[in-house]
Design a protein that fits this description.
9 helices; two-stranded antiparallel ribbon; 2 strands; single chain; elongated; about 220 residues
Amino acid sequence: DDKWMGHEVLDQPSERRDTPAWTLFQTKIIKTVLSREGFGADEIPDLFFTNYKQIDEIGHNFNLLQPEMREILRYSDEALKDLTEFLNSEVGQEQWVVVMTADHGVAPDPQAAGAWPIRMQYLQSDVAEHFGVGVEEMFVETSPVGFWFDQQTMEAEGITSEEVADFMVDYRLDANAPAGEDLPSQYRDRLKEPIFEAAFPSAAMGEIWNCVKESD
């Protein structure tokens, strides 16, 4: 029916790579290339690089708590088993090494995990307003996981990193929720919770890590 787990993707060439179908196809191509090019046929070590991108794509499109992620992991595990069995038969047991790595991890969807999805634009606006400066003056760059302050603005306005940290650690969920938004029920009795467990200037990281090591 051209669907995968109810999603109409198999009839879209650009979206097929986001399904286990591409994992099966990629594994077949890998084995064909390794065999045709004679990998492991002599004493000179051969290197082959590949990227099973489907786990990453599914993580971005559906998040790790969804059944789609479980399915792509199952297919990827089977593909790895298929490849290792192929290498044993084609190259020989204990004659090959597979090295696995990843470019980043992933966090569960905040709402599915019961966490609060921090609204960065509201947080930036609240920080800038608290210190009486504009957002563009206060921030040099932002990302989904953090932001960087304009040091010239902070120096000119007499704003210290410690003061920003104090504001952040006392920042509450209700301040980060847009006015008038109908919040999901799981958050309605948590509006006074602090969003951050801790906040501190990056210059203090060395001292903090030393404390962590001592506590261990």
